[in-house]
Every structure is written in C-alpha cells, then in structure tokens.
Amino acid sequence: MGSDADCASLAEQSGSQMRKPDGRTTGPAPWPNETPRRERASAAEKSARLRKLKTFIRIRFFIRNTGFVMTLTAGLALAVSLVFAPSAAVKIIGVSASLAIRDRLKVPSRLWQLTGALEAAGVVGALIGLAYRPVGVAATTGLTGLMLGALASRLRVRDALPAILLDIVVLALVTTTLVLYSQT
Q1: Phi and psi at residue 26, in whole multiples of 5°?
Q2: Helices (H), the chain
Q3: What's the CA gap between 124 and 45, in Å, rounded?
Q4: How many domains does the chain have?
Q5: Residue 119 and residue 116: Cα distance in Å, rounded?
Q6: Residues 103, 18 share a domain
Q7: What is the pLDDT of residues 42-91, one digit of tens each?
Q8: Other residues' Cβ atoms within 10 Å of the Cβ of residue 142
Q9: Domain that holds residue 116
C-alpha cells in the first residue's frame, strides 16, 4: 500500500476532481476511483428501493402461491351464499315481510319471484364456482347485476338510507367475490 502522498499524486495524475453540491470542483479526489458522496447516497437509495421491491414481490408471491387468495375467495363465496340463500327463499315462498318490501319497491309479483329464482341460481353457482371458476364468475356477475337492480329500485322509490347502505355493502361483497374469482 502506498502512503497518502502517493495517493494524492496518483489522483493528480488521473485528473479526477471532487464536486460540491453547487457544481464547483474542490481539487483532486482523495482516491482516483472514488465516487462523490452524492452518488453514493443515490446508490444507497437505489438499494433501499430494490429491497422494498423484493419484499413486495415476496409478499405477492406468498399471497398467490400459498392459497391465501383461494381461501379468501372460498370464504367470500360462502358469505355470498349465506346472504342470498334466505333472500331467495323468502321471495320464492312469498313470506309476508318479503311481499311488503316488494310492494314498497313497486316490483311486479312475477319479477319478484324471478328475482328469487335468479338469486337461488346465483347461490348454487357461487358454490359450484369453488370447484370450477368460470361458473363462479358467471354466478357472481349475475348477482352483481341483481344487486345493481335492487339498488336502483331502492333509489327510485327513495327508500330508507339504512336499506340503501345495506344494498351497497352486499354489492361490495359480491363484487369483491367476482374480482377474486376472476383473479384465480
């Protein structure tokens, strides 16, 4: 190894200059191949960004490949089924509370029964979708359409706010299930 004087003379021979942040040069660099401090900081920032990206990729890989999404999809499909099965049953059977809602929303009786039948088909399709995804996508797409229609009916007659908010929550549940079905 050489002394500091040897290194200084080597730096002078190579002509390397140190730059201040304002762009002025301060003379020869202490070591010929040393990068300025500002570039080292950006390299550290690049390294930190690269670590964050690797962490994000690991998390994404974990979520996709450990069954997390599939488990979440199954849970939401069961929740959708538990929400729509009773609703379909009371519409098809013609329970008096259901008929009161039908009259308040001004929906014809045949359309009300058809809605119940479509909800029942959506429940069955959502459960079959756990084994065969395209059926789940079709079923939750249909249930999403039904919920949009229900929301439009409630808004048309200016129904109570809690009923509208409940429809929005159920619509979000069905839409989330649809997105997860189409992802896996």
Answers
A1: -110, 5
A2: 4-14, 37-65, 68-93, 96-105, 109-128, 133-156, 161-183
A3: 52
A4: 3
A5: 5
A6: no
A7: 777 777 887 887 777 766 666 565 577 788 888 999 999 999 999 999 99
A8: 18
A9: 67-183
